[in-house]
Specification:
The structure is a single chain. The chain is an all-alpha fold. It has a domain of 251 residues. The protein has 13 helices and no strands. α1 packs across α9. The longest helix has 32 residues. The protein is globular and about 70 Å long. 43% of the residues are buried.
Amino acid sequence: MGNNMSEKQVGSKSNKTFMILSAFGIVMLLDAHTWTTVNIFANIIEYNSFFMPLFVFISGYFFSEGSLENMPGLVMKKTKKFMMPFLFWGFFYLGLERLMDHLGIIRYEQEVGIAEGLHRAFTTGQICNLAGPLWFLPASYFTQLIYAFVRRGFRKIWNEWLALLIFIIAGCASVSLSNSGWNTWQAGALLIPLKVAFFLQFYQLGVVYKKYLEEFHKKASNCVVLLSTIIGSIIVLAANGGNDSFIDLFAMTGFWNIKCVVFPLLTSVLGITFWLTVSRILEPAIGESKVVNKISDNTLGILEHHLFCYNVLNLLFWGISLLDKSGTIVFDVEMFQSWAVYRYEPFKQFGVFYIIVGIVGSLLIVSGTERIKKSLPGRKSEHNKLKKL
């Protein structure tokens, strides 16, 4: 099971700009799940207006034409990378939730059995609450496979710019159809196709960027690019009535406040361009950072486990609050028991502690599972074979 959400490693021996970019992306995701404690420029370019398309863009950047020569091998690789960890950890955390519910530790909105878990796996992608962030894995899996099959089928007449235009139209249609209720048809039966249609444009954008736009971007003035993206974001924000985010992509329900179907593309391009430029600027300073490299190489593992780590921390604070006779620690037990993304917040910046625990705890889980897999007879770790989202 690969530990990185992108297609190939972007560590110390590869593209340092994209290494930094993927690290930024996963930290933003964790920050979003602490309700933007760090808030890295999120008042100007909101996380939810671009950061999941960012990961798809990175995957597209590392797309290899040669991978189309062995489609069965490609399907197997993607299945091992995305679907196997998705199903394993999804049902592992479902079992853990049921156990904690039985012990009276949590009381989430409903009990989810295996049948309901399977239904969720191939609709919303959220098998259970603790595995909520894993919805992105099947979405990315089907996006990359469908892209590969379409590209291989039309390879003799393939045109990068025409493909991008077609995928943009498909993405806009996905937004429109979701707002029209197609995302809830037959209990979410069309959710996977809608998510794939939305994400394909960003995957192709990554391909086009690497092939045609990257050199131009490198030569452009960083100050001009950053200023342009900020101004563009302010304009789009104003045009959309002060809100440019689209949340809940797992259910495609977050577009209700979007006034134009092309806005999610615009905000995503602006956000990706901004942070790609920032990553390029920071490359000389942190390109060799072992911490950044470690985070970047394990974005998938962090995505899988950070919410569990948040709740382990919550259990610790709950226990401390029970021992606190002075009443100094005010832990909202009812909120914790009913909400998987609850966090104890004695002050606003305390969420940084959750982010650190989410990263470190996830890395420890990844390291532990890798050691277990290596110890299994006849098994070799695929840690370095299936690297990125």
